[in-house]
Structure formats: structure tokens, C-alpha cells
Amino acid sequence: MWEYTDKVKEHFLNPRNVGELKDANAVGETGSLSCGDALKLFLKVNENERIIEASFMTFGCASAVASSSALTEIIKGMTLSEAEKITNDDIADFLGGLPKEKMHCSVMGQAALKKAIADYRGIQILEKPGEIVCECFEVTDLEIIDAVKKNNLETTEDVTNYLKAGGGCGNCLERIEEIIESVKVN
Amino acid sequence: MKIIYADNNATTKVADEVIKQMLPYFGEYYGNPSSMHTFGGNVDKKIVQARQGVADLINADPGEIVFTSCGTESDNSAVYAALAANPEKKHIITSNVEHPAINNLCKHLVKTKGYEVTFVPVDKKGMLDMDILYNAMSDNTALITLMWANNETGVIFPIEEIGKKANEKGILFHTDAVQAAGKVPIDVKAAGVDMLSMSGHKIHAPKGIGILYIKNNLKFSPFLIGGHQEKGRRGGTENTVSIIGLGKACEMAKEHLNEMDTRVRNMRDYLENQLLEKIPACSVNGDKDLRLPNTLSIGFDAVEGESILLLLDQEGICASSGSACTSGSLDPSHVLMAMEVPLKSAHGSIRFSLSFYNTQEEMDIIIKTMVSVIQRLRDMSPFWKDGKMV
Q1: Which of A23, B89, B140, B157 sits most deeply, having the most CB atoms within 10 A of its CB?
Q2: Per-domain boundaries in chain B
Q3: Taking CA atoms, what residue in B is nearest to A108?
């Protein structure tokens, strides 16, 4: 059943800024077909490093589409340094919240934005630092620690909801639990 | 908005005739069928009649029918009874596309009771690997439990053939016929099954009522221990209202079997062929021939199931999706995964399941809506460009 806010529904049914931006000078892609959702973000950045246009193409559920649409609305008009500060929470807040099992959709938005900014600056995002914990979705220990701290995550389920980690084969669930415990202790 | 209900493998409309039969027993005739007085005894007479109705649908004797609370209870009862009847045997055979009522129960038995379970795999068409199935049968096998037809794809397993083999080897055989009942003919005697589960709400009876067929003279231990009801095979005061409804629903199901095989099958085929013709890059999941006449599972490349469902929902069309985008896993269903349906279409798989209440006009509306919904989602998909997958 629809368990989305009116704003999520509205952005899913009438998404803003859909489609490829022909003269984009920054592109960020995240997710894949096998993950079940993917986002390609297009930005047009002017000489003052201001985002003058943003658009997206998304494969995924309603909240993935709505999160992408929200992201483009949020960042339009921002400078890159302002946009860099956008987090997944900002995207979720803009939409009046997301169901917790859909939080990863907002995380996807943040990740695509980060990649698009790096693309503009000509920085290659090299291999992720840290050690891969979830093989299915390539999530590292550092990412998990970061998410647990920032969002006060308490269970492996929370981690899966935010990062997808542990949501595939489930082999890494014990390790995720250890990480959560270690964050709590520290 | 008018609802087009094409999700009949999830649940069905309670038939008006069924409601009519049930209503007096909610109010006026509230007697307990076990009572000595006539007031209660009259309710018992209705239950006898209902039991006959159920038995007739599957060619069983009325004494072989035990009323339960749902398909899941029937499945659990059957498995535990089989294990209790063969305490020395520690092996179970099932498939890897069963309903959670069997799948999770088997996993639970592995984890907590040390049972060994063979999950027989299926091929790309959803059909059982018969070699693995037959080779797994051993002296240590307490039970074979396999669904008659799959809820997601409608694929029908060769129950009769397996029953024959199980009987030869003296292994108990249970089938979950929750999806098959009322859609294809079921003959428990010809199928050689020892136990069979059925659920009321899939055949236009209410939710909360199921049956377990238990072959005459089979050693059976009850799952719910209590009073003498159901000849001591299932304790608890009878759900009189729903039993009466289920009896009527079974009579109706039997009358509609021919229509399921003709008019409903034709509607399903029409829906399937039109979608395949009008929408590029889509494919049917499961064997097209050995399949329930009402079920269509179809995958669309480069789009995601929940989005399709929610756009259909906007038009009042009820269907369901093959992907469970409710957890971070975003994995397609275990059935589609077991069939190795390619991920490009598994995530965009939709199940339409029809009933004899559906009409041809509704199929036309579904087709028209699907064409525009898929186009709309592909227009925003990064994996779709110039009319094809990228």
C-alpha cells in the first residue's frame, strides 16, 4: 500500500526535471539494474560554480523517483559548495519524510550528487576507502560506521534500510551487528 | 473510481451467494454444532452439507476433510503430522519456490529440529528438476511437500506423477493446492496425495477458513490439541459461518471450473498476447502451457515493479509485483530468483491473476493503461533509450 507522504506521491506522479540534460557538464551515476534502483543525475554548472540546471533519470520504486525529483529541486540555484553539504536527510525532509525501509532512496540521491560534483571537478572517485562488508551492494565498514553514527541506527535492519547493506544474501549481518556494537561502545 | 481487480491469487471477492448463505449464521443461528439441542444441531447439519461441498470439489470423502483457520495452518498441520507419524525419519523434500507457509517452516525445522531438507530447484520455466526430486527420495524421507501450482507464475507441478512415485516408495506426500483449487480440476484419489491444503479466500469464500484433506486411515496427529471437533484432528469450536460459506464457495468453484478453462483462460491469453505485442522488451515468466488458466506473470525490462503497481493503482487497477521492494534488499521474489529470471526484467515483473468476475472490457483497460505506464517509466529510466534497453 501507499505509505508515502503526499509530497512523495506528488513528486512520483509529477516528477520535476526528468530526462537527459543535453548540455550537462557534470553527470553522476549510482545504483545498478541488479540493485533494483539506479539514478543518473545531470547538472549544468556555470562559471561561478552555480548549478543552473539539474535533471535526472531514475529506475526504481516511487520513492526513488520522488527522491531524485526532490534532489534536483533542492540543488537548483545552489553553488557546488552549498550542494556538497546536502545530505540524504535533506532529501527525505524535503519530501516530508520517507518510510524507513526506503531511506536508501535518499542515500542514492546524495551519492549521485557527490559523484556529479566530483565529475565536474575532474576528480575521479577512486575505490572506496575501508573494507567491503556487504559484497552484494559493495558497502564498506566505514560507510556503515558513518551511517550508524549520523542516523543513530540501532539494528542491522536499520543499516539495511539506509545502505542496503545486509539486504542481499545476508552473510554480512553478523559483521554489521559487530560494527553497530562497536559504535555504541565508542 | 471503478476498481479493476486482477489480483485474485492474493485474495478474491467473497461471492454474493456465499455471503447470503453465511449471513443467518452470524446472527440468528449462533448455536454450537456440538450441542445436544436442536438449535445447535441444525448448525451441525449445515456443516455436514458444507463438508460434502468441499469433498466434492476435490473428489474426497467428507470424512477426509478437516476445517482449519487458513492455508498456513493446513500446511503446518500436514508437515508436523507427517513428521510425528515417522519420528525416525529426518528428511523432507520440498521445492525452492514454495509459499512461505512451507518454505519458512522447512527452514525452521532445519534450524531448530535438525531436519535435513532437500529444496528441489526449478528450471527457467519454473518446472521442477524431476531427477533431483526422484534421487532425493530415500528411506529416511518422512515427507514430500510440493505445491500443486505456484502463486506467482501459476506453473503447475506434475502432482499425479510425483504422487505415484511417492506411493511406490511409501513416502507421505502433501500438496499445497491453495492456488490450484477452483482453477484446475483436483482429484485427490487420482493424484495419490496423502494430504492437501486449501484456502477459502482464494475461491470466493471469506478469509480465515481453510481445509486440510487427510486421506482415510492416515496416521494423523493434531496440530491444535483440544476438543473432539473434526474427529479430534483439530480442536476448537468450528468457525461455523465461514465453514458454511466455504461449502457454498466450493460448490460454485466446481460449477465454474469449465469457465476457468475457457472464458477466463481466453481472457488471460488475450491480455498476455496484447501486452507482448504492444509493449517491446517484455516476457512471460513461467511455462506457458503447464500453467493455471488465470495467472500471468510478465516482466518488463528497465522498469521497476512498485512504480508500475502504483501507477496502475492510480487507475484503480489492482495487480501485484514480483519484486519485494520493501526492504533494502530489493531482491526480486524467491520464485523469480529460483527461476533465474534475468534481473533486467525480474525487477519489473507484474502478476495479473483473474477470476470469473473479470470481463473482456477490463482486459482492454488494463492493456491500454499498461502501454502508457510502461512508456512513462521507460521515458525516465536510465536503462532505456531509443526504444530499447541500454
Answers
A1: B157
A2: 4-10+257-370, 16-253
A3: B328
